[in-house]
Amino acid sequence: MAETVKITAPARGGRSRNRFAPTITIVLLLVIVAAMAPLLAKYRGAPQIWVQKLEAMSQNRPAVPATNTQHVVWVNRRSGLYYCRDSKFYGKMRPGASMLQDSALLKGFRPAQGQACR
To answer: How far apart are CA 101 and CA 117, in angstroms?
Structure first.
């Protein structure tokens, strides 16, 4: 007579599961973290260095020049720079405003070309 074979479906939604999958996943994550460790160590002190550089920049404010400071300049509020009337960026950098050069210097703006307007 013919033999009857009973076929049973695998458990958990019809897929068989590899018992090493969680172990492989953990090993891969550890390898990725180990590869990133030198990068993290390299940039770990970066924010402190940036703070030191910003503090040094704020202490090196340019002195008010001895020349005529009654020139109208265009200040860029985002960058903290001002542009003289003969600059190609005068009036074009936003957000900005026009003011006298001595007022711009007193408010902490710096000349974009490194020298005061003449």
So the answer is: 8
